[in-house]
């Protein structure tokens, strides 16, 4: 079956998208959670009892503590409390820990060690999966069952002071609150004073049940100067005084109330040696947890090492302390020391509640729930608990009762541990089977794409898929059989959740057959190639001699980038790789340009040895000149092109340098990555409020420039639409207060700019519509390259207009420079240097990647500009928001790809297979990094940075692949016509 | 002719490589407080000076571009000044390119500039010594199949090697290892130096291996 290369390419990419999706589905298991959203106290299980004797205790136990104060110190590392630093700078706490009424632990936080997921873990007791972080990018409110919500339901008054992340997570949950923003990292005194100033007042009062204080100063100090800074000591001392103040105040109140109060001192995450956090190193993960209450027994002077528990254990402990139901999705185990001072019956009751909750959660997430060791243990413990209760109710108060109680307690604790760990396993385990199926599919696609390069890039641009022979071969049936057998064996033997096993067996069989067919095709193509390559052995050594330096650079660059994805720092700093490669590319272009012009000129003076060569070359040059001149004549020339024609040589020589300078300027606009993101950049300077006039001027200039650069190739109607659209963008910016009108001095009366934005959307849609109409006209009614080129350009300008609307205001510069570079490259470089479609495609791809980072993107989720999803919307609407955010994030690569399509299909002197070649190259160059990355991630799935560095990048790659598949389909649609034309 | 030229060139190259090695060793042994990582600025100065001196010395001793016609003193002088100007221009050009590659514009100007000087002493100074201040000859040598003699080939190889070395030297910079040699521009200048030395050693070997093909071409 003969297939055009563009069709092959888009099919391959679509299949690869499927493979990547399957891989991702296996890689990011869905988080453990229960179906019903929130639990209520009505569902509280009664005390277990044996037959005939019903316990009278069916309600929730009453609160253990009257008041609970959570003192959360951001980035409090374990050794800031238990280490020498803590001993020196936190004297009150040290004294308490050593011989006071406290229990101290090391609570281990899960990655990513960032504040928001950690707050969620503290309050819900669940570990938010990576997918959660992505899914909840837009909705800030915490919808899961959590302690705060439970508290509010139970009518507790909760007071909060500190980081305003809490207020976003729990809107309307607090009786009283005051949020401090962590936006200004350089401020580490004001943020904390804003919290402390409420203390005196609130501690005097008695009308609250829970007080949460979140201090940010320490975290800011860490980010500024690291954990060994001289600022840490005084900050710890300050925290120590705060603790002392709270503790003393509570203690003085306790004298007249019988129920004691509890202080929980904890950190949300630690701090690495460089002062940052987010990863999963020991320093970042280990946080101290100190429980202080007069109810606890006073210790003697013995200080043993604090026990290690999980951060998720805090949620059930808090819930029990306040007499609330344990949050449904909590994986935590009640810290048994908290209830030690209570009677045995109460202790058992608490543990039973905790175990029941864990069992319910496990039942909803594990099919073979009955067989789980933890569940069995729990059932056993429940039974003996019932027996104990029976004895207890019968009034038996002997020593056997106490001993039996202790035994039950131990059983419960063991069961809880097992339950929690098997729940944790549900989260941590990868679904290797789905992952490998996905990886195999994309690997096969990559092989197919690589093996068909010689055919697909030939002048026919066709690839002969050897369908019939492999499909009916023995190998195919064998592979089908083997794979199905594997499928059955894997699915019946594994106990874990497996996505691929859960889909219907018809689909699974289809996929298996598809995989074996693909591998047969790959194998037969390979054997064909090997058979062919045996004849012309002479050609072997001339493979590389036909390559120019540029080809070599493109190959090395692509390979180098692929190899660099094996190192986490290179992923974090991927922008550096692309900037470096595009710079080198520009230098190579400059060198090529130099050689072309100077060698031709000097041909007369060179000796005869080179005469022939250069004569050929000058002939060739003349030809190019001619075609180019003809082209220039064909167009009705504006003034600019006239000038360009006259000084072509010098413009051409200087254009690579101009592009280099543009790249350098763009680099300073948005700092990105991890290591150097804190450096001051031009973008921040522009967006700060005191530089509004400058920004306004810049935005105006940029919009005018965009108009000038695009309008030349548009039809009159779209020209007008474009002008109105750009005007509308300025109005929109002014309405939301990013820029000022010249006659306006200060921005007041801000709105959301919805009318203005919708005004622009109308023009965007209008331009896109005219473009598509022209395209369709050229495709269906008559084959006219002129109309097609016009249509493509209009689609392109529609996207530019949309990008201009959605970009952050200072990023309009990026858009303008992008257009400038594309104009320069297409006018002076590619035509003059006669690059072929493959080279141009790879160059486009490189520049597209560089622009992805020029926009300020990076490989972490945090740089995604979500605000783009709200432009022109009253409130959050899911589908358009996702589309707009995706578009704006990938606008760099997308705009370059569309430009590539326009350029390749509008070059009239090029052969008709150009678009097919471009499409094929585009697919191949996307497929290589994706496949390699999938393999890298599989290999590194237990890497320290898998969640913080590798996973976000995987998502980025997958979405980029999806977009590229769309682009490839577009290529194919445009290309189809050309083939039919060539046939005519 | 080829054989003697090759021999001349090999000795020259070995001298050049030796000079680079000496420029590292001698200051470390004789001057205290000198270390490769701590005082890299002075090392950059010393190394580039050494390389330039050796290149000039080789020019005087070996006379690689044996032009038959005699040149007058004034002609020589103008050539010399032209060479100096070219060298300075190349330093600034390299500086510009390095800045375009992302080196800070304002901070650590001295480092960047000295690195540019080092690079130009590895590349431009050799070009000046072997080809003279003749731009078209340079373009010829550095285009594909443009080399006409052993010297041209060696020039190609050493220049490409040192530039590629510097290029590769930039790779470790983004890694988060926090090593002292990752500081700008140490890894790059280290890469350039290693590339240069490697180029000096490779060039004679490569020419010797490909001598049949090369003589055919230059005829
Ligand atoms: Zn934090
Ligand atoms: Zn932080």
UniProtKB/TrEMBL annotation, chain A:
Cellular component, GO annotation: endoplasmic reticulum membrane
Known pathway: Glycolipid biosynthesis; glycosylphosphatidylinositol-anchor biosynthesis
PANTHER family membership: GPI ETHANOLAMINE PHOSPHATE TRANSFERASE 2, PHOSPHATIDYLINOSITOL GLYCAN-RELATED
Subcellular location per the Swiss-Prot or TrEMBL entry: Endoplasmic reticulum membrane
Similarity comment text for this entry: Belongs to the PIGG/PIGN/PIGO family. PIGG subfamily.
Transmembrane segments: 432-451, 471-490, 502-531, 552-571, 695-713, 720-741, 753-770, 790-807, 813-833, 881-903, 923-942, 954-974
GO biological processes: GPI anchor biosynthetic process
Gene that encodes the chain: pigg
InterPro entries noted in UniProt: Alkaline_phosphatase_core_sf, Phosphodiest/P_Trfase, PIG-G_N, PIGG/GPI7, PIGG/GPI7_C
Topology term for the membrane: Multi-pass membrane protein
Chain ranges of the GPI ethanolamine phosphate transferase 2 C-terminal domain: 643-961
Keyword Kinase belongs to the record: no
CDD domains: GPI_EPT_2
Keyword RNA-binding: no
Name of protein: GPI ethanolamine phosphate transferase 2
One MF annotation (Gene Ontology) recorded for this entry: CP2 mannose-ethanolamine phosphotransferase activity
From TrEMBL, chain B:
Involved pathway(s): Glycolipid biosynthesis; glycosylphosphatidylinositol-anchor biosynthesis
GO BP terms: GPI anchor biosynthetic process
Keywords from the UniProt entry: Endoplasmic reticulum, GPI-anchor biosynthesis, Membrane, Transmembrane, Transmembrane helix
A GO molecular function held by the record: ethanolaminephosphotransferase activity
Transmembrane feature ranges: 12-29, 41-62, 83-101, 113-133, 154-175, 181-209
Keyword Endoplasmic reticulum tagged: yes
Cellular component, GO annotation: endoplasmic reticulum membrane
The protein's name: Phosphatidylinositol glycan anchor biosynthesis class F
Protein source organism: Xenopus tropicalis (Western clawed frog)
Gene encoding the protein: pigf
């Amino acid at each position: 079956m003969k297939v055009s290369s563009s069709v092959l390419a888009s099919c391959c990419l679509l299949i690869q998208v499927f493979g990547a999706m399957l891989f991702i589905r296996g890689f990011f298991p869905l988080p453990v959670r229960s179906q019903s959203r929130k639990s209520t106290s009505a569902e509280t299980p009664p005390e277990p009892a044996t037959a005939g004797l019903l316990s009278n205790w069916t309600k929730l136990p009453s609160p253990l503590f009257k008041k609970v104060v959570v003192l959360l110190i951001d980035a409090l590392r374990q050794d800031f409390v238990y280490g020498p630093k803590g001993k020196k700078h936190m004297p009150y706490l040290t004294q308490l820990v050593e011989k006071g009424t406290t229990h101290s632990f090391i609570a281990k936080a899960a990655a990513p060690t960032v504040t928001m997921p950690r707050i969620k873990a503290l309050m819900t007791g669940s570990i938010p999966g990576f997918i959660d972080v992505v899914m909840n990018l837009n909705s800030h409110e915490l919808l899961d069952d959590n302690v705060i919500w439970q508290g509010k339901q139970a009518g507790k008054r909760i007071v909060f002071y500190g980081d305003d992340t809490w207020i976003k997570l729990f809107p309307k949950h607090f009786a009283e609150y005051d949020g401090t923003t962590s936006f200004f990292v350089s401020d580490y005194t004001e943020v904390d004073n804003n919290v402390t100033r409420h203390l005196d007042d609130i501690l005097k009062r008695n009308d609250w049940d829970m007080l949460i204080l979140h201090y940010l100063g320490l975290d800011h100090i860490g980010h500024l100067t690291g954990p060994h800074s001289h600022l840490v000591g005084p900050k710890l001392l300050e925290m120590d005084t705060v603790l002392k103040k709270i503790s003393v105040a509570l203690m003085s109140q306790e004298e007249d109330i019988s129920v004691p109060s509890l202080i929980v001192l904890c950190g949300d995450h630690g701090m690495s040696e460089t002062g940052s956090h987010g990863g999963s190193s020991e320093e970042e993960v280990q946080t101290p947890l100190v429980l202080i209450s007069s109810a606890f027994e006073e210790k003697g002077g013995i200080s043993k090492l604090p026990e290690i528990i999980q951060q998720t254990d805090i949620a059930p402990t808090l819930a029990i302390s306040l007499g609330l139901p344990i949050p449904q999705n909590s994986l935590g185990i009640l810290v048994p020391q908290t209830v030690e001072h209570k009677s045995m019956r109460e202790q058992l009751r608490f543990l039973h509640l905790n175990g029941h909750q864990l069992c319910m959660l496990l039942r909803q997430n594990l099919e073979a729930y009955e067989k789980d060791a933890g569940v069995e243990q729990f059932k056993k413990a429940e039974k003996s608990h019932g027996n104990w209760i029976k004895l207890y109710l019968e009034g038996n108060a002997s020593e056997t009762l106490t001993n039996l109680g202790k035994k039950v307690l131990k059983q419960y604790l063991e069961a809880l541990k097992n339950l929690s760990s098997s729940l944790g396993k549900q989260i941590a385990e990868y679904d290797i089977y789905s992952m490998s199926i996905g990886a195999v599919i994309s690997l096969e696609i990559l092989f197919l794409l690589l093996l068909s390069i010689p055919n697909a890039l030939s002048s026919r641009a066709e690839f002969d898929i050897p369908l019939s022979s492999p499909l009916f071969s023995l190998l195919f049936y064998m592979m089908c059989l083997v794979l199905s057998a594997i499928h059955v064996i894997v699915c019946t033997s594994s106990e874990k959740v497996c996505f691929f096993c859960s889909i219907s067996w018809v689909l699974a069989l289809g996929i298996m057959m598809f995989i074996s067919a693909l591998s047969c095709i790959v194998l037969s193509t390979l054997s064909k190639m090997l058979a062919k390559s045996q004849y012309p052995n002479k050609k072997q050594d001339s493979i590389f001699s036909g390559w120019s330096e540029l080809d070599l650079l493109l190959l090395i660059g692509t390979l180098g980038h692929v190899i660099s994805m094996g190192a986490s720092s290179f992923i974090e700093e991927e922008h550096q790789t692309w900037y470096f490669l595009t710079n080198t590319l520009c230098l190579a272009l400059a060198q090529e340009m130099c050689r072309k012009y100077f060698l031709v000129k000097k041909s007369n003076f060179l000796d005869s040895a080179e005469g022939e060569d250069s004569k050929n070359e000058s002939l060739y040059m003349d030809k190019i000149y001619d075609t180019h001149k003809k082209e220039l004549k064909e167009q009705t020339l504006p003034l600019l092109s006239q000038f360009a024609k006259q000084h072509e040589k010098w413009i051409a020589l200087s254009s690579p340098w101009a592009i280099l300078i543009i790249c350098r300027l763009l680099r300073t606009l948005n700092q990105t990555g991890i290591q150097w993101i804190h450096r001051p950049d031009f973008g921040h300077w522009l967006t700060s409020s005191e530089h509004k006039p400058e920004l306004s001027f810049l935005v105006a200039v940029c919009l005018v420039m965009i108009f000038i650069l695009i309008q030349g190739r548009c039809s009159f109607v779209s020209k007008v639409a474009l002008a109105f659209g750009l005007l509308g963008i300025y109005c929109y910016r002014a309405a939301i207060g990013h820029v000022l009108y010249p006659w306006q001095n200060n921005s007041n009366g801000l709105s959301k700019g919805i009318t203005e934005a919708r005004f622009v959307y109308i023009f965007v849609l209008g331009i896109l519509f005219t473009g598509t109409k022209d395209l369709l006209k050229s495709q269906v009614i008559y084959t006219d390259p002129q109309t097609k080129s016009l249509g493509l350009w209009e689609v392109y300008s529609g996207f530019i207009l949309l990008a201009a609307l959605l970009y952050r205001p200072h990023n309009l510069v990026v858009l303008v420079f992008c257009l400038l570079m594309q104009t320069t490259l297409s006018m002076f470089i590619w035509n003059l240097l006669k690059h072929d479609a493959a080279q141009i495609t790879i160059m486009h791809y490189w520049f597209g990647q560089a622009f992805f980072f020029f926009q300020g993107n990076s490989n972490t989720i945090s740089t995604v500009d979500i605000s783009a999803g709200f432009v022109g919307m009253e409130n959050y609407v899911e589908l358009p928001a996702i589309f707009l955010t995706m578009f704006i994030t990938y606008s760099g690569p997308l705009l370059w790809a569309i430009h590539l399509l326009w350029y390749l299909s509008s070059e009239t002197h090029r052969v008709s297979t150009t678009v097919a070649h471009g499409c094929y190259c585009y697919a191949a160059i996307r497929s290589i990094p994706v496949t390699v990355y999938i393999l890298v991630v599989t290999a590194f799935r237990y890497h320290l940075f898998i969640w913080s560095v590798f996973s976000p990048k995987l998502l980025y790659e997958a979405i980029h692949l999806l977009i590229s598949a769309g682009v490839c389909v577009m290529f194919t649609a445009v290309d189809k016509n050309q083939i039919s034309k060539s046939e005519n | 002719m080829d054989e003697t030229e090759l021999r001349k060139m090999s000795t020259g190259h070995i001298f050049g490589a030796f000079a680079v090695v000496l420029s590292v060793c001698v200051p470390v042994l004789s001057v205290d407080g000198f270390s490769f990582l701590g005082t890299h600025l002075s090392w950059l100065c010393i190394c580039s000076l050494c390389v330039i001196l050796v290149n000039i010395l080789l020019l005087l001793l070996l006379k690689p571009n044996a032009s038959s016609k005699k040149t007058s003193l004034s002609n020589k002088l103008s050539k010399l000044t032209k060479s100096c100007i070219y060298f300075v221009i190349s330093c600034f050009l390299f500086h510009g390119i390095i800045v375009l590659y992302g080196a800070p514009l304002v901070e650590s100007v001295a480092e960047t500039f000295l690195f540019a000087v080092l690079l130009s002493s590895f590349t431009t100074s050799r070009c000046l010594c072997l080809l003279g201040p003749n731009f078209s000859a340079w373009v010829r040598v550095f285009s594909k199949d443009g080399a006409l003699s052993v010297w041209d080939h060696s020039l190609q190889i050493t220049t490409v090697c040192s530039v590629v070395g510097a290029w590769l030297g930039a790779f470790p910079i983004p890694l988060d290892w926090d090593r002292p040699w990752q500081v700008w521009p140490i890894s790059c200048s280290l890469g350039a130096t290693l590339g240069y030395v490697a180029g000096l050693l490779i060039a004679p070997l490569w020419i010797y291996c490909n001598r049949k093909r090369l003589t055919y071409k230059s005829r």
